[in-house]
Amino acid sequence: MKDIQTRLVGRASRPEDAAFALGVPIYQAVTFRQADPDRPGEYDYSRSGNPTRRALEELMAELEGATAAFAFASGMAAISTCLLLFSAGDHLLVTRDCNGGTQRVLEHVFAQLGIRADYVDTHDAAALEEARRPQTRGVLIENFSNPHLFVTDVAAVSEWAHRHGLLVLVDNTILSPVLSRPLEQGADVVLHSATKLLAGHNDVTAGVAAVGQGELASRLGFLQNAVGAVAAPHDSWLVLRGLKTLGVRLERAQTTAANLAAWLAGQDGVERVFYPGLPGHPGHERLSRVAAGAGQILSLELAPGLVRPFLASLRLFALGAGFGGVESIVSRPALSCHACLTAAQRSERSIGPGLIRVSVGLEGEADLRDDLERALTLARRENSAEAANQEVG
Ligand code: PLP
So what's the pLDDT on residue 393? Predict the structure, then answer.
């Protein structure tokens, strides 16, 4: 099957389901009856295994080309459980422009356990080599970083990392397996905030980790059960349902995002647009080696006086946290996903008050553009009126 959308839709009924439902039923159960007094069955207790969660894990393994996948209660639960593959004394190299929550858990939880991290531009081979220490054991990459969408060539970094015996973990949240399959590019572990594109409807928090080789699969399977931050049956079902339309959602949102990015780049007051599909983006050259498309997120830097009135004037785009869903959302990383960093860390990463991340959803492109245009016009007007008032004052 060549078309990934066929695989996304075409799940057979679960063998456990006597009614042969077309979709996967929600097994809202903790305990499974044991038929043989001497041997537990395939399922015994939901933390260890649940048929609905298993269906999601099997589909994610298939989509990512993995030996096994594991579903968690959130993206952070997936990342944190995978970080437990490391031990006290280990050192990690992490994409500098990473999700704020990833940096927070590393700095405030894992550092206390003796697992240290340095933040590096993982798209820069020389910077990686310079940051490597004798204790370095792993590289945690965002192949498309959050929020500037810098692009890391997973194949090149994996080749370098494996030469030095490092484990390669790739957060594939912004691309999804429709646009990129990091295990095929040499990574060892793929991570997802399934809250975003995979579920796709801004209505469930979940995470996934998928691994290529068997030994890693048993270690992670052990950790998933031992730590217990598993995806609930109903949440697993919501992700499964969202996955059925992932291909078509992403295709449509990506087209809109590409057109809006090009349009925004020519607007007064928009100082910079970050979208890897645009030739001026620093990751544009690497894009075709990493992904089959540039995705549905873009970030923009607005002139300082425009930010507040622009955000306050938007009607169709919701101001909030999150991305990858059917509803278009604008976020201010400095106040949302990266608010947990210190002001100095944000400034070092160029996450200023004027940076706005735009997650393009499924509304009509013309309606979204009209909303942006109206808000920009109002913001420019308000800003000039304020400047004139200040002159008079
Ligand atoms: N990875 C990336 C790239 C993210 O953007 C996020 C959240 O925004 C996470 C992981 C964490 O996911 P969750 O919010 O599902 O815990």
Answer: 63
